[in-house]
Amino acid sequence: MNPLRTCIVGFGKIAAGYAKDPVMARHYRYTTHSQVLAAHPRFRWTAAVDPLADAQTAAAELSPGIVIASDAAKLTNAADVDVAVLATPPGPERTAALAAFPNLKAVLVEKPLGRNQAEVDAFLAACAKRGITVQVALWRRADPAFRALAAGDLSARIGKLQTAHALYGNGLRNNGVHLVDMIRMLCGDIAAVQATGPANTPAHLPIPGDIQVNAVLTLAGGAQVFMSALDFGAYREVGLDLWGDAGRLAILQEGLSIAHFSRAPNRAMSGEREIASDAPAFLPSTVGEAFWHLYDDLARALDTGTQPCSPAASAVASERVIDAIAESAQTGARKNL
Fold it and tell me: Does 125 lie in the same domain as 147?
């Protein structure tokens, strides 16, 4: 099959910058869009768009020969682009960029889809009108280890979920979206949310106007997930600790560590049981190649005419949970979904 000709719109950290981090490179084979596009046989990187001169220079150095422009409308090969990777911050510029590519088949778009519902609706309406497939870069949806857990491995290991503790930082609309989407992927629909305190707005959050807030998420099955915000100035974590009636599973170090703890005879009382939290069995982590699988899945979806693994409708559902948490923090009331 002919490679899918691809343009990266927005050439910042997630497009290329993270690849310069030597510590990240020890654990993640693919940390950026440019790394995947340089190697994946189903895609051909043909163009890059960014208004900053330094970003244009970086793109030219990484892939000599691609067409580079300060604006998508100025690309000389825009009509040849099959896939646009939208790695810009959320905003109306994403919808505007679509118009530059008359023969676009798909977009791979970073989360969140928009800063508000109007922006999300406008972007998705523009894609739907032209039949453009949307894959949202919620990479856990493509990760083999997470997909296996969602397909039944989680319930086989821990039984029925009783409770969970979830951790995030760097903003509700940033890593909070990843966390909520992971919860939905592994644990099912979220029926209601209740913020457990007022929102705070640290100055260092990557998305302007974003907030941090703690909340209780009530799942459709009745279990509750206690979601807590961390100060990434102290340390990073986007994690989920799941306690079932037959075991425990902890996803920590942002997915690099997946530990299963079995149920065992209680060491302090006769006839009782415990979770052997001091004897974890570690599952193989595959997050280092999750970005590759995200692209692989998009190619499969285009080949077969089926939905990608992280479609717009699913991402919208996760972002509506985020909106509900923000509303609950503002009003103090429980929000049903």
Answer: no
**pTM for the full predicted model:** 0.94
Q: Give yes or no for a contact between 215 and 136, defined as CB atoms under 8 angstroms apart.
A: no
Query: What is the DSSP secondary-structure string of 148-176?
Result: HIIIIIHHHHH-SEEEEEEEEES-TTTHH
User: Are the C-beta atoms of 215 and 195 separated by less than 8 Å?
Assistant: yes
Asked if residue 148 and residue 79 are part of one domain, the reply reads: no
CB count within 10 Å of CB 321 equals: 25
How many domains are contained in the chain? 2
pLDDT digits 0-9 by tens, 102-160: 999 999 999 999 888 899 999 999 999 999 999 999 999 999 999 999 999 999 999 99
DSSP string, 120-151: HHHHHHHHHHHT-EEEE--GGGT-HHHHHIII
> The domain that contains 249 carries what CATH number?
3.30.360.10
| Domain housing 112 | 4-137
Contact 187, 223 (CB under 8 A): yes
Considering 119, 137, 155, which residue would you say is the last residue of a domain? Answer: 137
> Tens digit of pLDDT for each residue in 24-48?
999 999 999 999 999 999 999 999 9
The span from the CA of 230 to the CA of 256, in Å, is 18
